[in-house]
Design brief:
This protein has one helix spanning 51-60, and strands at 12-15, 20-23, 26-30, 35-40, 62-64, 68-71, 75-77. The protein is mostly beta strands. It has a single domain (5-67), classed as SH3 type barrels, CATH 2.30.30. The longest helix is centred in the last third of the chain and has 10 residues, at 51-60. The protein is globular, with a radius of gyration of 12 Å.
Length: 79
C-alpha cells in the first residue's frame, strides 16, 4: 500500500463493519525503518501531564497501522 502521509491527516476512520472510530490526528513512525506504526484518534500534543497518560491514550485512542486495510477518502481498519 502506497500513499502520502499528509493525505491521511483528518481522514475519518471506520472499521470493516462500518462503525466510526474517529479521525486521524497523529501518525507514529518507526524512524529506523520508516514504517508507520500507529495512528491516533486524539492529538498527542494535548497530553502533557504524565507518561502514564500518554500510555493510556496510546492504548485507548490509537490504532495499530497493521490493522489498516484501505486508505482513500476514508481509512478502513480490520480487527
Amino acid at each position: 500500500m502506497s500513499f502520502l502521509l499528509s493525505k491521511m491527516y483528518g481522514l475519518n476512520i471506520y472499521d470493516d463493519n462500518g462503525r466510526y472510530l474517529g479521525k486521524v490526528y497523529d501518525v507514529i513512525l518507526n524512524v529506523e525503518t520508516g514504517d508507520v506504526v500507529r495512528i491516533t484518534t486524539e492529538p498527542l500534543k494535548k497530553i502533557t501531564t504524565s507518561r502514564e497518560e500518554l500510555v493510556k491514550t496510546l492504548q485507548k485512542k490509537s490504532i495499530m497501522f497493521k490493522r489498516v486495510k484501505s486508505v482513500g477518502d476514508i481509512l478502513i481498519v480490520g480487527k
